[in-house]
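Table 4 source record.
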Amino acid sequence: MDKTIFPKDFLWGAASSAAQIEGAWNEDGRSPSIWDIAPKKKIRNGEDCHIASDHYHHFREDVKMMKELGLKSYRFSISWSRVMPEEGKVNEKGISFYSDLVDELIKADIEPLVTIYHWDMPLWVYEKGGWMSEKIIPLFKEYTKIVVDRLSDRVSWWMTINEPACFIMNGYMQGEHAPFKRNYLALSKLTRNCMLAHGEALKAIRKYAKKTPKVGIAFSSGAFIPKTEDPDEIEKARRMSVESDNGLMSNRWWMDPIILGKPVKAYGIYASHEKDMIEICQPLDFMGLNIYTSFNYSSWGKGSQVPSPGIAKNSLGWVIDERVMYWNLRFIYERYGLPIMITENGVSLNDSVSLDDKVHDPQRTDFIYRYLGQLKKAMNEGIPVIGYQHWSIMDNFEWAEGYDPRFGLVYVDFDSGRRIIKDSAWEYKKIIETNGAGL
């Protein structure tokens, strides 16, 4: 007997972000974000996100494809620059785009899952200090209220911020993402402002939402995979995954304050005051985990391993080991006890159109079955996973890597805007139709 325990309302879906797919960077009153003005030399091949996947002009077609694929949900983010092109100004055309998108999704019986912030800070906010300044906290709250006022009569699912660890580390520490800064001395300030902005946004969602909201935050996450199933090895992997002080990119750095209200101190750089915890630790309905690869091979992780020759990797060089899905879910749930949504999981490949005018991507199909098999294993052990959002719905602008990495279930010809549903998407549709019974 199949022991699958995916609930009937499991949120099978796919994800995207505004900056990566929308395009229309200067249309209908939108002002630039920090990614729109990125220096050409900072993006592979000198590319930019000005057109991206042109979702702004194709959103109805894109939702039709989502329905064709049987998606039950769609996670997308709001462009702050499109909604508020300057301080104190609401752009009606901008917010109407998202209202129309939500309407299309609902007509297609697809649950909209809204992320308030996915890395694309408006230039005008950055010029006021961005994450370096406490000014961003009330600005972010105001922006959140505007979005909630307009969409919450139809939207129930909300995420405040996507992967704070990544946009602070890559944008302010390593200088590899917008705004391309390198300032490790500002780590405490950046972390604190980001966490407080999350807390204020969450309170605003609960206060102003017209439908009872379900609120979370999407963390970048990973885990150490134990070398064996020996209890000592499992305990060692658990401690390294959720207890060790690995700094900004660790699970504990963000999750302990936001979920448990516990200040974290790592390397003596950041120690949040207890008074901050009152505002930072707001009740969450779920936690989102973006899971790709294990910590075993991370450059910053303790006990890093050298990948074996020939080990499976994606086109960005990330090691593919599906066991991270199970161990990540297990270790995180044991520590934090919240329902979990997989808010991102996917694989970048060098996809291309074949002679038969189709896109054959067997490695992605294999990836999906492998990772979802491990998700099923976790659920069968009682871990409450409420949804899975594949990254991504379509090929897109992959930040500083430009357009070469293709993560999508749908192939995008970036010159013509043409969409082609990949083989893996049809396989994912079968999984959805059977509610995971064949995993």
